[in-house]
Design goal:
Layout (H helix, E strand, L loop, with lengths): L12 H6 L3 E5 L2 E6 L3 H10 L1 E5 L4 E6 L3 H8 L12 E7 L5 E9 L4 E5 L4 H11 L5 E4 L5 E6 L3 H5 L15 E6 L2 E6 L8 E6 L4 H12 L4 E3 L2 H10 L35 H10 L3 E8 L10 E4 L2 E12 L4 E9 L8 E6 L2 E8 L11
Parallel strand pairs: 3-13
Antiparallel strand pairs: 1-2, 3-9, 4-7, 4-8, 5-6, 6-7, 9-12, 10-11, 11-12, 14-17, 14-19, 15-16, 15-18, 16-17, 18-19
Helix pairs in contact: 2-7
């Protein structure tokens, strides 16, 4: 388990300092928010490639003869349908349908790996441990795992020759075990940006050779380190969830528009299933929507949303989109007005910002496969 009283450092801390990264406390870790500017880093990922340190994420190992049915009881998506070498995205819910976390599940030949949000490592481990049955072993491997992401249309060119050739043929949400600049690890065709790319898991003792190897291979192709600031604008352009903002213990996957991850008909009953079944049958009172605004004023988390002068909800995330050159955001509104084209107003202090509900993702030119 991990203390959150003082910021922890990832294996790449010294590299962030050397690269001029501005470091902040994020989810209990000292992380780079930016290096040379949020917009520059954002556009670098959209046009070439960016290198992200995401070692603050948590990794749990789940093994044993009953690992699959156990995980199926804990998450809404269908773990039992996973093939070896395949990953899936899923919320894990409480009995009331509230989201404990959104995570990735990887099926390895002899075990499963869960990848959880940094801010939820202790909470998630306690939650999964509380429900672990006999026949299942649950281990926290977070401190033994370094994690880098290479994201962008040139990502495959950058890693070519430094990972097995088979890794370049991986489909989206597929992975393999292989060498990464000489370090054995998991090579995953996943990401949080909407662009093609890889997430690379390996032991922290190999931090230097992998970080330096990636930058040396990628520099001629435009690869640069990217911080949390651009990571947030990239994910929001895609309408991806940020736990603690867009989804929480008080929101359900159906309200968040994650119905595609909720397999109500799978073989195993899962926590929150009854509530989600009832929501699907009776309809939702609120929904998470995307909206765009004119001008440059940015909607901020927890600003009030009105429709026709009547309170309708709250903003969960907002930013100025470098790719679309306009402000965008997400928020929960009453289901009756959650239709594309609905006119909204965002209350920014004494100013009312005109907005319109739009489809997600906001950005549709990404290169992810």
């Amino acid at each position: 388990m991990h203390s959150t009283t003082t910021p922890r450092r990832t294996p790449f801390y010294e590299f962030h300092v050397a690269a001029g990264g501005r470091l902040i406390d994020f989810a209990g870790f000292e992380m780079p928010v930016r290096y040379r500017g949020d917009v520059r880093e954002h556009q670098c990922v959209r046009t070439a490639a960016g290198l992200f340190d995401i070692s603050h994420m948590g990794e749990f190992e789940v093994s044993g003869p009953d690992a699959a049915p156990y995980l199926d009881s804990m998450v809404t998506n269908d773990v039992g349908a996973l093939e070896v070498g395949q990953a899936l995205y899923s919320p894990a819910c409480r009995p009331d349908g509230g989201i404990v976390d959104d995570l990735l599940v990887y099926r390895l030949p002899d075990r499963y790996m869960l990848v959880v949000n940094a801010s939820n490592i202790a909470k998630d481990f306690a939650w999964f441990e509380e429900h672990v049955p006999r026949g299942v072993t649950l281990l926290d491997r977070s401190d033994e795992t370094a994690l880098l992401a290479v994201q962008g249309p040139r990502a495959a060119e950058i890693v070519r020759g430094h990972v097995p050739d088979a890794a370049l043929d991986l489909g989206y949400y597929r992975f393999m075990i292989g060498r990464i600049f000489g370090a054995e690890g998991v090579i995953s065709r996943t990401g949080y940006t909407g662009e093609d790319g890889f997430e690379l898991y390996f032991h922290p003792r190999h931090a230097a050779e992998v970080w330096e190897g990636l930058l040396a291979a990628g520099a001629p192709l435009g690869l640069e380190p990217v911080g949390l600031g651009a990571r947030d604008t990239l994910r929001l352009e895609m309408g991806y969830m940020l736990y603690g903002n867009d989804i929480t213990d008080d929101t359900t996957p159906l309200e968040a528009g994650l119905g595609w991850t909720v397999k109500l008909g799978k073989a195993s009953k899962f926590l929150g299933q009854d509530v989600l079944f009832r929501q699907k049958s009776e309809g939702l009172a609120r929904r998470l929507v995307g909206f765009s605004l004119d001008g440059r004023r940015v909607p901020r988390h927890d600003m009030a949303i009105e429709c026709g002068g009547v309170g309708a909800g709250r903003v969960t995330s907002g930013t100025y989109s470098p790719s679309l050159e306009r402000p965008i955001g997400m928020g929960y509104v009453t289901a009756a007005i959650a239709k594309n084209g609905t006119a909204l107003e965002i209350l920014a202090g004494g100013t009312r910002l005109a907005a319109n509900v739009v489809a997600r993702p906001f950005y549709t030119r990404g290169t992810h496969r």
